[in-house]
Design a protein that fits this description.
- With 694 residues, the chain is of the alpha+beta class.
- It folds into five domains: 2-73, Phenylalanyl-tRNA Synthetase, Chain B, domain 1; 90-284, Phenylalanyl-trna Synthetase, Chain B, domain 3 (Phenylalanyl-tRNA Synthetase, Chain B, domain 3, 3-Layer(bba) Sandwich); 293-357, Phenylalanyl-tRNA Synthetase, Chain B, domain 1 (2-Layer Sandwich), CATH 3.30.56; 377-590, BirA Bifunctional Protein, domain 2 (2-Layer Sandwich); 605-692, Ferrodoxin-fold anticodon-binding domain (Alpha-Beta Plaits).
- The protein contains 19 helices and 33 strands.
- The chain has a seven-stranded mixed sheet with strand order 21-24-25-29-28-27-26, sandwiched between helices. It has a five-stranded mixed sheet with strand order 6-9-12-13-14, with no helix packed on it. Strands 7, 8, 15, 16 and 17 form a five-stranded antiparallel sheet that branches.
């Protein structure tokens, strides 16, 4: 907003230094970006924030200066005399939701010509070029009052009326008209237009039409002054890519009560400069905007600002801002003037008082702490727990993936998730961007498998990634879903056809080793692996993971049937695991206390045994039997080999395990260990039907 100081000072009583005006406006929230010298005059370039549409005028800025320095405001004095009647012109508002008020005056017998120098000079200093005296006057009043006006050539209007509405209001889908800039524009059914009795003659609040333009031949005019819904003007302006001085103000909101004064001011100036006879005003006002009333407490207002202001000081500042105040009980009621559409709550009143009082006068203090802030111990523990898991896996050479929390329901079908499974209780998005991201994920594996698919398509043979993220389940008792944090790990390696039996760090047992190491790191005990029931995993190489009888996840080779539904050109070896970290955290929290004991100073004795046992026998049961044996001399035990194939009888498997014996008070004798181990093997054979493999 460009403001010539010579023009601004006409509306203020008293002498003020130009530099003080610029500094004070900036401190009050209207930043003066530049001060330009033009023909012995100074022009302020003011950055007006979008909420302060009342300051998009010379009078609006004068009101601010008046309030800051407690001066008197001198608005233009004019009087329309000998107002004629009997124009018989009608105004019809077909859409009162978009046009709240429409007023007009007819002026007949004018003489269109160049504007006087003083008028040209003022609007040009504000960045508007001179066209002719009629158009210049409407622009002058726009700058003066901040309310856009438009003049139509009355003799080019058909039907002796003005209609305001969208094409849809008149049964049309779209319209086309040429605007004043000479461009033919297509208008949608929702664009608000000004019509005469037959055709559209202006895009409401944006630009007039060329078919009713005021030219040198114009003798009679109709001056429009209206209030249009800001959202409608902004929508039309943005769609057309057409921003004008009028649309800039209308889309921010103009003063609906002040539009008559602006209309009368324009009619008065036209008569003074271009002559003519002024006809009585036509004013259609179907939609009233109620006055905003804000209740506030002066005590709370002072606390909010941080300065102990007296009631008289507060009331005085508000009166200087043209905000009338009266008291009701313990509170004050502020009556917001129609030009201040940005004020709606007590905090707005406090801001007005603070900026006029002076932000620089408010002492800088640290905010008062009303309540101490305590650490959320449980949340802190969980963050440390998750950080520990993340660091552990990264240290093993894995890369972390971060995927969106959205998947497609088709992903659950690909993974063959049963209909009665909890993972089918997903939350659907109301407005998904696309079908592939239409539900909140209930498992991490679909996203991680897509990561592997994309990396494979780019020539990456080996992939080791993990993700720690939330999964979501619909909760029938609450609106919000249940959120659990899961860990997903996936390994992918192209099959090595040359060496199919070599050890591979990407197979099932390698991933199981990663999980076992993680569980030991987290001090998780009573861990069991049972044959998995997950339909998307390979039946022979998969397991469900249990801790104290509660399933916390699964591990396994992905089924070839599922892999065939993805875009893999080869047949990769992919192993995956997913763990419910919420359950794991609960178990970890109970086991986080550590007990230390001294280690034995005596050497261990190791005994390895290989058993032939039914191929359907689960290796975990063998470990359970050793654990139940209950000897204090058994320090540790584990299975180190499981083999089926050549050299093993049909229907059998070889399970080799090691038991480590150690005493705390002596060195064990070989005979003692042999006797103990023999009894252990006899117990295992009697309960499993196994036989020792020689």
């Amino acid at each position: 907003m460009r403001v010539p100081l010579s023009w601004l000072k006409e509306y203020l009583e008293g002498q003020i230094d130009d530099n003080i005006i610029a500094d004070s406006l900036t401190m009050a929230g209207l930043e003066v970006a530049a001060l330009e010298h033009i023909d012995r005059d100074k022009v302020l370039e003011i950055e007006v924030t979008p909420n302060r549409s009342d300051c998009l005028s010379i009078i609006g800025i004068a009101r601010e200066v008046k309030a800051i320095f407690d001066l008197k405001l001198k608005k233009p004095v004019f009087n329309i005399e000998k107002e004629l009647k009997g124009s018989n012109f009608n105004i019809i508002i077909a859409n009162s939701e978009l046009c709240y008020r429409y007023a007009a005056r007819i002026v007949k017998g004018i003489k269109v010509g160049p504007s006087p120098e003083w008028l040209k000079e003022r609007i040009e200093k504000c960045g508007i070029r001179s066209i002719n005296n009629i158009v210049d006057i409407t622009n002058y009043v726009l700058l003066e009052y901040g309310h856009p006006l438009h003049a139509f050539d009355l003799d080019l209007l058909e039907g002796n009326c003005i209609r305001v509405g969208t094409p849809a209001d008149f049964g049309k889908e779209e319209e086309e008209m040429e605007t004043l800039d000479g461009v033919k524009r297509k208008l949608s059914r929702e664009d608000l237009l000004i019509w005469d009795g037959i055709k559209p003659i202006a895009i409401a609040g944006v630009m007039g039409g060329a078919n009713t333009e005021v030219t040198d031949k114009t003798k009679n005019i109709l001056i429009e002054s209206a209030y249009f819904k800001p959202e409608s003007i902004r929508r039309t302006s943005k769609r057309l890519g057409l921003i004008t001085e009028a649309s800039y103000r209308f889309e921010r909101g103009t003063d609906i009560e002040d539009l008559i004064e602006a209309l009368d001011r324009a009619a008065f100036l036209i008569k003074e400069i271009a002559g003519g006879d002024i006809y009585e005003i036509i004013d259609v006002y179907p939609k009233k905007i109620p006055q905003v009333k804000i209740s506030f407490s002066t005590q709370k207002l002072s606390q909010f600002i941080g300065v102990n202001l007296k009631e008289d000081e507060i009331i005085n500042i508000l009166n200087r801002l043209h905000i009338k105040v009266h008291k009701e009980g313990d509170f004050y009621i502020a009556l917001v003037p129609s030009h201040r559409q940005d004020l709606s709550m007590p905090e707005d009143i406090a801001e007005e008082v603070a900026r006029i009082f002076g932000y620089d006068k408010i002492p800088a203090e640290l905010p008062e702490v009303f309540k101490p802030v305590f650490e959320d111990v449980e949340s802190s523990k969980k963050r440390r727990f998750l950080r520990s898991i993340r660091n552990f896996i990264i240290n093993l050479g894995f890369n972390e993936a971060v995927n969106f929390s959205f998947i497609s329901p088709e992903e659950l079908n690909i993974f063959e998730i049963p209909e009665n499974d909890l993972r089918r209780k997903y939350v659907s998005l109301l407005n998904p961007l696309r079908q592939e991201e239409s539900i909140l994920r209930t498992m991490l594996m679909p996203g991680l498998l897509r990561n592997v698919e994309r990396n494979t398509s780019r020539g990456i043979d080996s992939v080791r990634v993990f993700e720690i993220g939330k999964v979501f389940f619909k909760n029938d008792e609450t609106i919000l879903p249940t959120e659990d944090i899961h860990l997903g790990i996936i390994l992918k390696k192209e099959e090595d056809y040359k060496n199919p039996f070599k050890e591979d760090p990407y197979d099932f047992f390698a991933l199981k080793g990663v999980l076992d190491g993680l569980f030991r790191h987290l001090k998780i005990e009573n861990l069991l692996y049972h044959r998995s029931k997950e339909s998307f995993l390979h039946k022979g190489q998969s397991a469900d993971i249990f801790v104290k009888g509660d399933k916390i996840g699964f591990i396994g080779i992905i089924s070839p049937r599922v892999l065939s539904k993805y875009d893999f050109k080869t047949k990769p070896h992919i192993c995956m695991a997913e763990i419910n970290l919420e359950k794991l955290f609960s178990i970890h929290s109970k086991n986080c206390s550590l007990n230390y004991k001294p280690f034995s100073m005596y050497p261990p004795v190791k005994r390895d045994t290989a058993l032939l046992i039914s191929k359907d026998f689960e290796a975990q049961k063998l470990l359970d039997l050793i654990k139940k044996y209950g000897s204090d001399l058994i320090e540790d035990f584990y299975i180190f080999d499981i083999y089926k194939g050549k050299g093993i009888p049909e229907g059998k498997q070889n399970i080799a395990f090691r038991v480590i014996y150690r005493a705390f008070d002596r060195t064990l004798k070989s005979e003692e260990v042999t006797e103990l181990h023999t009894k252990l093997i006899e117990r295992i054979i009697s309960e499993t039907g196994a036989e020792i493999r020689s």
